[in-house]
Amino acid sequence: MEPDTVPPIAHTSRRTLLALMGAATCGALLSSPRAAAAPAAAVGLDDPAKKEIAMKLVSSAENSSLDWKAQYKYIEDIGDGRGYTAGIIGFCSGTGDMLDLVELYTDRKPGNVLARYLPALRRVDGTDSHDGLDPNFPDDWRKAARDTAFQQAQNDERDRVYFNPAVKQGKADGLRVLGQFAYYDAIVMHGDGGDATSFSSIRRRALRQAKPPAQGGDETTYLNAFLDARVWAMKQEEAHSDTSRVDTAQRVFLRKGNFDLNPPLDWKVYGDSYHIG
Q1: Mind telling me the catalytic residues?
Q2: Which residue has the higher pLDDT, 29 or 32?
Q3: Which of 155, 161, 236, 269 is deepest in the core (most CB within 10 A)?
């Protein structure tokens, strides 16, 4: 993905509710006239056009906006016990991914406006504390968000921690674009730790009910089992108990058999309607 530039809120997003992803030579062709061309690889969620759709789908749920690139500067404490939530994927000061992001940014650009908060971010990791961050961290985050180096760091950490692992596992399970997106959205919200509601635990719960296509299972049956497991996980935590991002979005696409997330796409999240043409 090429570096993005900055070109979400009255909204009802999850955040507001809480406080609120070697050509052959001519000779070779002549010597093997009946050789069949290799089939084109199936388009995955990592196709640039599909990835853009994934970013918009997640942003509709996280920010009540399809303009995901406007979220580099977003930051607030949404009262979910994870401290500050910020950026394009909801990096949290209490879960370690915000710390990793700022460390990456500082490796690439020493002396940046957020570098001085690294000791505080290390102290508050695993808590909802703002100790050492208030009162200026939010303003400094927004200043950093104007820097294309920080925007690219957000993109890269999103891909490393969330997008790439989800797509890799989805492809290994034989899932098409929709299934890969279901994995991505789950890992964005739940992370992939060792707890019962993490992405890997959700997947294991689904595997007890159905086999994915790579194991000879039916894709629709498996994805319904995965989404059932996802809904169960969401309901274990009040912060995630509104399941509309599954019920009125992903299940809508699944019922229509739109396994490749081909536009036009129409869905709802938290009662708000969205469209990609």
Answers
A1: 62, 80
A2: 32
A3: 269
